[in-house]
Amino acid sequence: MSEDQRFGPDRRVTLPGPLALDGGATLSPVEIGYETYGTLNAAKSNAIFITHALTGDQHIASPHPMTGKPGWWARMVGPGKPIDTDRFFVICSNVIGSCMGSSGPGSLAPDGAPFAMRFPVITIRDMVRAQALLLDHLGIDTLHAVVGGSMGGMQALSWAATFPDRVQAALVIASTARHSAQNIAFHEVGRQAIMADPNWRGGQYYADGVSPAAGLAVARMAAHITYLSESGLTEKFGRRLQAREAKTFGFDADFQVESYLRHQGLSFSDRFDANSYLYITRAMDYFDLAEEHGGMLANAFRGSKTRFCLVSFDTDWLYPTSESRNVVHALNASGAPASFVELSAPFGHDSFLLDVPALDRVVSGFLCPEC
């Protein structure tokens, strides 16, 4: 494969594998959708891997092919931006289990039919192992940094724990080393909404194209509430009603916040696969970095030479600051170099995706301290 085929926006590659999974199964071949930005230097020392969150994908700084909207981190990635593509070679791949070009439930099984719920159970560490296969394919041994927010932060932590010799720095934003019972409970509500949709049919909905869109929309609505802050919702919507010629009572979207959530659910179901949502939320719930290393989180980083930076937000109640502090304490106990900052922002968990200038300064300063 030539360089121009291998590097650039919206690439897909099929790797032979096999990829051994934590659940005992193997995946072969392994399909990976990915994008790259910037230029890899001759020493191959300027690569930054960005890991995406639950509902994200590889389209970080280019228009989404389905929605036409700007990339989900276009404000952060690009020439002269905090993750400067004039300086760094940026890679982002779609996680396995997803639906934007990487192996997942919608991929074809050996019998020629979609895997659906026959797709093997995956973990966060499995996602990272697949990303390592992609780096091998690209000829990159060591990353200048791995950067991720939310589920992407879980992957960044797993990268540093699984491949410590391949990661020089890890930037973990609004994330956690394991899910709480409350986190798992919210995900289970979403999964049950999908499976209760009569169009789910045990995951066998690919043939006729009639997907459990209503269930997936409800799952997205429930999750989206956890991404926001109460003060942010109050400021944006309060108890304001939808504009109508005559006031009526019923079960239409009477309140503006209802209309907003319904729009979020419907637009999400247009671009995401319901089975992928089941698999990825389950992977997040299984994630427990301490359990993977004998029950002590510090063991995950023992002897690591990776530099770490942890960032939390004061209005994030999904992964509150206490979760980041737990990771920092483990890093300190392991002797790994680590810095930590809690930023003030009104947007809740989604703050890492929105306009928070203080985050821009942290990201650019950590990735390029000599700049």
CATH architecture identity of the largest domain: 3-Layer(aba) Sandwich
Q: Treating each run of at least 4 consecutive H or I residues as one helix, how many helices? A: 10
Query: Which parts are unreliable, with pLDDT below 50 for 5 consecutive residues or more?
Result: 1-6
Q: Helix amount, in percent?
A: 25-40%
Task: Write down the CATH class of the largest domain.
Answer: Alpha Beta
Number of strands: 12
Mean pLDDT: 94
Return the domain count: 2
CATH superfamily of the largest domain: Alpha/Beta hydrolase fold, catalytic domain
Quickly give the structural class. alpha/beta
Along the chain, the helix and strand elements come as: HEEEEEEEEHEHEHHHHHEHEH
Side-by-side strand order of the widest sheet: 1-4-8-5-9-10-11-12
CATH fold topology of the largest domain: Rossmann fold
Estimate the global geometry from the Cα principal axes: globular
Oligomer: single chain
Largest sheet: 8 strands, mixed
Gyration radius (Cα, Å) is 20 Å
Distance from N terminus to C terminus (CA atoms, Å) equals: 34 Å
Share in β-strands: 5-15%
Domain AB hydrolase-1: 72-354
Subunit structure: Homodimer.
GO molecular function, one term: homoserine O-acetyltransferase activity
Keywords: Acyltransferase, Amino-acid biosynthesis, Cytoplasm, Methionine biosynthesis, Transferase
